[in-house]
What does this fold into?
Amino acid sequence: AWIVLKTLLWTTLMFLLLSPLVFVPVFNFALLVPVFYLFHKLLVLDVASMINSTKEYQALKKEYAGQMRGISMVCFALTIIPFLGVVIYPYYVIVMSHFLFRKTEDLRAH
It folds into this structure.
């Protein structure tokens, strides 16, 4: 519960700080930063909470944070395409699940 609350507070803070950039045409894409942050955190938490214990999640996050962020970034880029973003939701949950299953398997083997 604390992780979700922290994520929501951080996203709200980033959104408030970046909101003035909506009026500057070139910089209005900066508003995608808090949206991506929320997307990434909730996708990873949603999948990892079903697969891992808290200890395993922390270990995976420590070792594979960059790769998880990369997968989230590709999936987030697909959500920006209007119709595709709605239809492809199960795909990126499956992609993140597959990645976390494999890494959890490796973690438990050691």
Summary: The radius of gyration is 15 Å. The chain has a mean pLDDT of 90. The chain has five helices and no strands.
